């Protein structure tokens, strides 16, 4: 989460100096949470829970270092740093945490969120600092949430943001979790107790879009109660191959369609070409595309035949 907890701030807890194991001291002064916290910059969706820290102060950086040292001691290998991106953008804190992880060379994947109001221009400020970054609001098992991802993914692909330079080689635009299988409801205090509201076609559409746009595949359901259909979709070899190794991923602009149709195209590592057709209408529609149009999208390639998978 962003910065420091409100509980620590209100209690004015000392800042740990991991080098000495005692409270952080500088020039004879002991520093505490109230020295580094910004109560006027709370997390927008948890305003009573967390606030930003002053990273221009060494004490603020010492606090963040101690926090990520604790994560490493616990064996944490993935951190989702929330309330620092999108509408909550705190570039200074992202830079500080990224620097800590780079210096420590700890094998911790670094993800930032939320993705509300994120644009390619904003994301370009963080791609080299992180491993992945959210580009959407919260995605739940609603057809409208999945449909909204198409424009977002198109914009980031058009800006050449899929697989940009990142903290460890590449950074990836994250469309959020896959709300498949056995779920709860947003904000519910109960454990998972219902099936996904997306029908089989909707689930297949979401998984295919996430795969061909190379979004990180984060499963949001209960792995303890994984039905065969969900398991088969999540482990589909072609989708995982496409998500891991495809290139030239982009929305396909050439097609003859009836209704709201979205199309994506990508190149496989063995020279194969993936084309995905998505029907966002409630009824069936006819879609057609010419091999010559595929060549326009991927010039220099030869298209002699097509196979449906």
UniProtKB/TrEMBL annotation:
UniProt keyword list: Disulfide bond, Glycosidase, Hydrolase
Catalytic activity as recorded in UniProt: Hydrolysis of terminal, non-reducing alpha-D-galactose residues in alpha-D-galactosides, including galactose oligosaccharides, galactomannans and galactolipids
Top class in the EC scheme: hydrolase
Pfam families with a match to the protein in the record: Melibiase_2
KW Hydrolase (keyword) present: yes
E.C. number: 3.2.1.22
GO MF terms held by the record: alpha-galactosidase activity
Gene3D superfamilies in alphabetical order: Aldolase class I (3.20.20.70), Golgi alpha-mannosidase II (2.60.40.1180)
UniProt cross-references to InterPro entries, sorted A to Z: Aldolase_TIM (IPR013785), GH (IPR017853), Glyco_hydro_27 (IPR002241), Glyco_hydro_b (IPR013780)
Top-rank taxon: Eukaryota
Record-level GO BP terms: carbohydrate metabolic process
Similarity field: Belongs to the glycosyl hydrolase 27 family.
Name of this chain's protein: Alpha-galactosidase
Annotated organism of origin: Tripterygium wilfordii
């Amino acid at each position: 989460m962003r910065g420091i907890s409100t509980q620590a701030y209100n209690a004015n807890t000392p800042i740990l100096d991991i080098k000495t194991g005692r409270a952080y001291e500088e020039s004879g002064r002991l520093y505490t949470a109230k020295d580094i916290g910004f109560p006027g910059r709370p997390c927008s969706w948890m305003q009573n829970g967390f606030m930003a820290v002053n990273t221009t102060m060494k004490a603020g950086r010492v606090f963040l270092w101690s926090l990520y040292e604790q994560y490493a001691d616990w064996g944490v290998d993935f951190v989702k740093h929330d309330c620092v991106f999108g509408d909550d953008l705190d570039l200074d804190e992202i830079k500080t945490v990224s620097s800590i992880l780079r210096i420590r060379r700890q094998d911790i994947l670094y993800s930032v969120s939320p993705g509300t109001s994120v644009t390619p221009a904003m994301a370009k400020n963080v791609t080299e600092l992180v491993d992945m970054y959210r580009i959407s609001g919260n995605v739940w098992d609603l057809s409208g949430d999945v449909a909204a991802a198409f424009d977002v993914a198109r914009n980031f692909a058009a800006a050449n943001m899929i697989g940009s330079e990142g903290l460890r080689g590449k950074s990836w635009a994250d469309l959020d979790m896959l709300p498949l299988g056995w779920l709860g409801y947003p904000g519910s205090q109960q454990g998972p107790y219902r099936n996904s509201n997306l029908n089989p076609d909707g689930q297949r559409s979401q998984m295919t879009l996430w795969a061909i746009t190379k979004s990180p595949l984060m499963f949001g359901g209960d792995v303890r109660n994984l039905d065969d259909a969900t398991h088969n979709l999540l482990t589909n070899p072609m989708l995982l191959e496409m998500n891991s190794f495809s290139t030239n991923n982009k929305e396909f602009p050439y097609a003859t369609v009836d209704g709201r149709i979205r199309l994506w195209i990508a190149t496989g590592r063995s020279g194969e070409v993936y084309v995905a057709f998505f029907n966002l209408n409630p009824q069936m529609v006819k879609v057609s595309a010419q091999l010559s149009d595929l060549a326009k999208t991927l010039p220099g390639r030869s298209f002699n035949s097509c196979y449906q998978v």
